[in-house]
From TrEMBL, chain A:
It comes from Yoonia maritima. Gene3D superfamilies: MetI-like (1.10.3720.10). The lineage of its organism: Bacteria, Pseudomonadati, Pseudomonadota, Alphaproteobacteria, Rhodobacterales. It holds the Pfam family BPD_transp_1. Signal peptide: none annotated. One of its GO terms (biological process) is transmembrane transport. This is Multiple sugar transport system permease protein.
Automatic annotation (TrEMBL), chain B:
The keyword RNA-binding does not apply. It is found in: Periplasm. One of its GO terms (cellular component) is periplasmic space. Residues 1-19 form the signal peptide. This is Multiple sugar transport system substrate-binding protein. It comes from Yoonia maritima. Keywords: Signal, Sugar transport, Transport. Belongs to the bacterial solute-binding protein 1 family. The keyword Cytoplasm does not apply. Its main location: periplasm.
From TrEMBL, chain C:
GO terms for biological process: transmembrane transport. It holds the Pfam family BPD_transp_1. Coiled coil: none annotated. This is Multiple sugar transport system permease protein. It is a multi-pass membrane protein.
Length: 293, 418, 280
């Protein structure tokens, strides 16, 4: 078949033009701009003087940067692997159900994912309210001390991580369910004939066959949770935001609250590089684990 | 002829309708006082039908409000008029967020220096220029539940709580309430929100003549000890189980209004909340009084609500005239604003008999002699840099996570590191 | 297996099913609790004991939210911007995905790598520059300003490319024999064959856009331009006891998406798995 090259090029360029234009405007240009801004002493809007690497030099002794960095790492540790396991457990429980029961149970587990973050915030802020929350009444009933979950640094990150898992794990559940359905039923039937225990079946059949999905879920979660802002911001209001800073929150605080665009951009660049480095490492690890098999 | 008049009248109405100015208004008055301000806006709009209409919005108080103001000025999307805290005027002027109000503007409003107390007038001035029209002074007060205090025998003959004279007496009152088994919290305190507690702690510093800033340096000399003393009292109340811990703003109000907390330290702006609940028959007998004297003498932190015109919007002269009319009208009608608990800034209003008879304002009006304000610097003010640093350490200290001395050390370190 | 072991397994399976249902109900309970609380008067929500059903059922908070706030405008803003993001993202990604999959042109590999790379970049780090850019274009406080920075969804292009890659070459060659134009191939063959994917990706993008918080929160300073997700957290009163009122606004904000999900449950779940690059 002959291809009319010139015409094909033209059509291709027409097709990609809107996409490329949008990408250039709101992805490529802002990324470059971010690097430039990070070397300036600029406010949020308006020009600033070139100050070299001063904005970066202050970061190591900036306490709030330290808080933001470690809180982000802590949050990732609290959500990525635990969230994946919760999702896996839920999907294992759901997959053995059938018909209406399955649809109902799945809907109940999935419903939170569909809600906007501000709704999730209101629901949990209310349920865990230190004075009037239903969870506190339950603690009272068991004779336990109430916990001011969103007001202490000990409980804040774990609580927000918990709410985040509750909110987002419906997504991972669906991925696991798709993965479980793809495992041929015959394998289980063969194993059942051998009288294999449930645990062995999971350990030697389900888990290895599900590994590609598990890897995918972990990767998606990792990239997503590094960018945490919304929940932390909302749950911090009227409390102690400076103790609960995470990277994106600190970028927001420097840029929009303190009007220091240059310093904020330096933090943004650090997060940018962190995410890329972690993505690359993650990618290499996934490849390695695939090769091993 | 009649027809002619009718046509002329219609034309005039038409012209008036065309000339109607819409004034975009932002405030942060979300409490009981917000309900009163909405009423005032409605009254203003009625009184200026066909000429000026206020399009008002209430935003989240504090950091979110001032963040929005800052960004909207930076991008030229600011409102026409906004409420502001007098304490934050130096910072705002420093950032170039506000338009100057010229003497001509004040003439147009029919207001001037003589209409305000010198301290308030000074608070809205910078470099000899004016940047706002003060509306009120709003201190914090002690709210109390007369029913419970009365049953516990802790009311004086004047209907005030027993023990407002010293630290030992007041603590004893709190302790007596705690021993009364029906009481959950003797004192409702906004212990989860450092921003709020700034007011109480600064008041307690003022009771020892403490200063935050002396000649541009932070917490010089024994001022650090005075801050530590203030924190120590509040921490003691927590340790003894005398006040609610980890309580945020709405919860504090709810604890008090539901009767679970017997007393509450809060701004006068919650007066309308109590008045309205009482009118609905949903509240106990209550009162509000000047803060107890914990240290050497009475002292209460106070701030003023101010109207200001932001930079970052190109107003027509007509629009600006309309904005001035809004400020002038509210100032001159601020007797109603006093029902929001505030002390009107306009002297002519506070001189009225109707104001002097107003309750509970009259009960706490004694405190006007003992008010202290934020230091006048771009570092200070609601949600300003000092406020931000200090409030970070208040929550852990007030709830017993951190020693007062350690908190003071950290605060000094961070203030000097800004 | 002996009959007794089978019976035991059945018994255990039944217990396990009941347990799963119980956990699922408990999982969704906070949502129920939020809804129920929003139907109580304010002085009842703060009662120091648990009431699973309101003592006094009231809709006053809903009435307040609907009449005293700008929630109607926020709905319109949310719908307009979410539809805008969906239409623009899905259409531009579809065309780009098609070009990369089916056409050969200089720059194709570079573009593909750029898309894969952008998959790793968090758009949240660009908020400062997006804000400055939108301010310079005078697009803050406008639908366009809310929409534009939300159009970076590389995964949509990647999924489209995968699906177009899998369309058998025979279709293309047959069309070429008929002298069909490239446009006809796209609109008459490739798009109709992939309607399912297009709807699915549209649903996912819509949910993402409806739930977006950070950017709409920054891009809007005027309350009448806020989306509902942002509005309900920004304009509600900071002081006073308004728990039930705040919850009622939250219920109103979450209701449309929850309804869409419950009605199109199967489509939505399929869409989600697709968006992760898995064929459900």
């Amino acid at each position: 078949m002959l291809r009319n090259t010139k015409k094909e090029w033209l059509i291709a360029y027409i097709l990609i033009a809107p996409f490329v234009a949008i990408y250039a405007l709101i992805f490529v240009y802002p990324t470059i701009d971010m690097f430039f801004l990070s070397f300036q002493d600029a406010p949020l809007v308006g020009a600033g003087d070139f100050v070299g690497i001063e904005n970066y030099e202050r970061l190591p002794r900036d306490r709030r940067f330290g808080t933001a960095f470690w809180n982000t790492a802590y949050f990732v540790a609290l959500t990525v692997i635990p969230g994946t396991f919760v999702a896996l457990a839920i999907s294992m429980a759901v997959t053995r159900l059938s018909g209406r029961t399955q649809a109902l149970v799945l809907a109940l587990f999935f419903l939170p994912y569909i809600l906007p973050v501000s709704v999730v915030f209101r629901i949990w802020d209310w349920a865990l309210n230190f004075q009037f929350g239903i969870a506190m009444h339950v603690l009272d009933a068991f004779g336990m001390d109430r916990i001011p979950v969103f007001k202490t640094t000990t409980w804040f990150m774990p609580a927000v991580a918990f709410v985040t898992i509750w909110w987002t794990c419906g997504f991972s559940v669906l991925l696991f369910l798709a993965g479980l359905r793809a495992i041929p039923q015959e394998i289980y039937e063969a194993a059942a004939l051998d009288n294999t225990s449930r645990w062995r079946m999971f350990r030697h059949v389900t888990w290895p066959l599900l590994w590609p999905i598990t890897g995918l879920v972990l990767t998606i979660q990792l990239i997503l949770q590094l960018k945490i802002f919304d929940q932390v911001y909302l749950f911090s209001q009227g409390g102690r935001p400076n103790d609960n800073l995470v990277m994106v929150y600190y970028i927001f605080q420097r840029a929009f609250v303190n009007n220091q665009g240059g310093r904020a951009a330096a933090i943004a660049v650090v997060l940018f590089i962190m995410v890329i480095v972690i993505s690359v490492i993650n990618f290499q690890l996934t490849r390695l684990s695939e090769r091993r098999k | 002829m009649k027809k002619f008049i009718a046509i002329a009248a219609a034309a005039m109405v038409g012209a008036a309708a065309q000339a109607q100015e819409t004034v975009v208004w932002w405030d942060f008055l979300g409490g009981g006082d917000g309900v009163r301000m909405k009423q005032m806006i409605a009254d203003f709009n009625d009184a200026h039908a066909g000429e000026i209409v206020i399009d008002g919005t209430t935003l989240d108080w504090g950091v979110p409000f001032y963040t929005k103001v800052q960004t909207s000025v930076a991008v030229g999307e600011a409102p026409d008029i906004m409420t502001y805290h007098a304490s934050r005027i130096p910072l705002a002027v420093d950032q170039g967020l506000l338009q100057e109000l010229t003497p001509a503007d004040f003439d147009a409003m029919g207001l001037g220096q003589d209409d305000f107390a010198p301290s308030i007038w000074d608070a809205v001035s910078a470099d000899g220029k004016q940047y706002g029209v003060p509306i009120d002074t709003h201190p914090i007060v002690l709210y109390y539940n007369k029913d419970i205090l009365g049953e516990a025998g802790l009311l004086t003959d004047d209907g005030l709580p027993v023990g407002l004279g010293s630290r030992a007496e007041f603590t004893a009152t709190l302790q007596a309430l705690k021993d009364n088994s029906d009481v959950t919290f003797p004192l409702g305190s906004v212990t989860a929100d450092g921003n709020f507690m700034f007011r109480t702690i600064y008041s307690l510093m003022g009771q020892q003549d403490g200063e935050l800033m002396t000649d541009g340096a932070f917490l010089v000399g024994d001022n650090a000890t005075k801050l530590e003393n203030a924190l120590a009292v509040l921490q003691e109340w927590t340790n003894e189980g005398l006040q609610s811990t980890y309580t945020d703003y709405p919860a504090t109000v709810a604890l008090f209004t539901s009767g679970e907390a017997v007393m509450m330290i809060n701004g006068v702006w919650e007066v309308p909340t109590m008045v309205d609940l009482e009118a609905e028959g949903n509240l106990f007998e209550w009162g509000a009084v000047e803060l107890p004297v914990i240290f050497d003498h009475a002292s209460t932190y106070s701030d003023s609500h101010v109207f200001a015109i932001p930079e970052g919007n190109d107003m027509s002269p007509e629009k600006r005239a309309a904005v001035l009319e809004v400020m002038s009208w509210i100032s001159k009608n601020s007797l109603f604003w006093a029902t929001a608990g505030h002390i009107p800034a306009n002297n002519n209003i506070t001189a009225m008999d109707a104001y002097k008879a107003m309750e509970p304002n009259a009960t706490y009006s004694s405190l006007t002699a003992n008010m202290i304000y934020d230091p006048k610097t771009p570092m200070a003010g609601v949600a300003g840099p000092i406020f931000d640093v200090m409030s970070t350490y208040f929550v852990p200290t007030l709830n017993g996570e951190m020693e007062p001395s350690e908190a003071v050390e950290e605060i000094i370190y961070e203030l000097n590191d800004m | 297996m002996t009959p007794t072991t089978i019976r035991r397994i059945n018994w255990m399976g039944g217990a396990f099913t009941i347990l799963t249902v119980l956990i699922a109900v408990l999982w969704a309970f906070p949502i129920y609790w939020g809804i129920i609380s929003s139907l109580k008067p304010e002085n009842e929500v703060v009662r120091p004991y648990i009431e699973l059903w309101p003592d006094t059922l009231t809709f006053e908070h809903y009435w307040f939210a609907l009449t005293q706030t700008q929630i109607g405008k926020w709905y319109i803003n949310s719908i307009a911007t979410s539809v805008g993001v969906t239409v623009l993202t899905v259409s531009t990604s579809l065309f780009a995905g098609y070009a990369i999959s089916q056409l050969r042109f200089p720059g194709r590999r570079v573009l593909w790598w750029l898309i894969l790379a952008s998959f790793m970049v968090p758009t949240q780090v660009l908020i400062i520059n997006h804000f400055v850019l939108m301010a310079n274009m005078s697009l803050l406080n406008s639908w366009a300003g809310i929409i534009l920075p939300q159009l970076i969804h590389p995964v949509i292009v990647i999924v489209f490319k995968q699906f177009f890659d899998q369309v058998p070459k025979d279709f293309r060659e047959a069309a070429a024999m008929d002298n069909a134009s490239e446009w006809a191939v796209l609109f008459k063959i490739y798009i109709p064959m992939n309607w399912g994917v297009i709807t699915a990706l549209s649903i996912v993008t819509f949910i993402w856009a409806w739930n977006a918080f950070l950017w709409p929160f920054l891009a809007v300073t005027k309350t009448e331009m806020m989306t509902i997700t942002v509005g309900i957290t920004q304009v509600f009163d900071a002081f006073g006891v308004y728990y039930a009122r705040q919850l009622s606004a939250a219920v109103l904000a979450g209701f449309p998406v929850a309804l869409v999900y419950l009605v199109f449950q199967r489509r939505v779940t399929q869409a989600i798995t697709l968006s992760a690059g898995i064929k459900g």
